[in-house]
Amino acid sequence: MKNKNFSGILLAVSAAALYALNAPCSKLLLAEITPTMLAALLYLGAGTGMFLTGLLQRILCHGRTEEKRLTTKDLPYTAAMVLLDIAAPVLLMAGLSSTTAANASLLNNFEIAATSVIALWLFHEKISPRLTRVVVKQLNWG
Question: Which of 135, 127, 80, 94 is closest to 111 using CA atoms?
C-alpha cells in the first residue's frame, strides 16, 4: 500500500510541475505563434496523449475496461465541458499574450483558490481543512 501512495504522490507532484511550466513556456511560444494556434496545438498534444494512454490501457488490460458508458442524461454536461474546454485554452493564451509575466503568475496562483471555491459552491465537493486555510489565505478572507 505504501508503494501505491508514493506513486500517487509522485504523479501529483509531476502533474503540478508540468502545469507550472505551462504558462512560462506558452508565454515564450506566443512570441512566434498566435494564441488560437497555440491553444489548438495544446489540444492536439492533449488528444494525442489521451489516445496513447487509452491505447496502452487497452493493450495492458486486454480490452477490458470498467468505465461506464455516457448516457443521454450526461449530454448537457458533456456539451458544456466541450464548449468550456475549447474556450478555456483560447482565452488563456489570449490573456497570456496580453499581460505581463507577473500578472499571469498571480492569476495562475489564484486559479487554485477559484477552482476550490467553485467545486465547493457549485458541486458541493468536500474540501479538507488544510485546503480551506489555503483558499481563505489566497482570497484574503481571513
Answer: 135
Query: What SS3 state is found at 84?
Result: helix
Query: How far apart are alpha carbons 23 and 100 in whole angstroms?
Result: 11
Q: Phi/psi at 67 (nearest 5 deg)?
A: -80, 145
What does the pLDDT look like over 42-98, one tens digit per residue?
889 989 999 998 898 888 887 666 778 889 999 999 999 999 988 988 998 898 889
Question: pTM score, two decimals?
Answer: 0.66
For residue 105, give every residue at least 6 positions away whose Cβ sits within 8 Å of its Cβ, in sequence order, or none. Answer: 23
Q: Strand, coil or helix: what is 106?
A: helix
Calculate the alpha carbon distances from 85 to 2, 8, 28, 77, 142 in Å.
35, 25, 22, 12, 33
**Separation between Cα atoms, residue 51 and residue 53, nearest integer Å:** 5
Distances (CA, A) of 136 to 16, 69, 81, 100, 118: 21, 38, 27, 26, 13
Dist CA 112 CA 45 (whole Å): 23
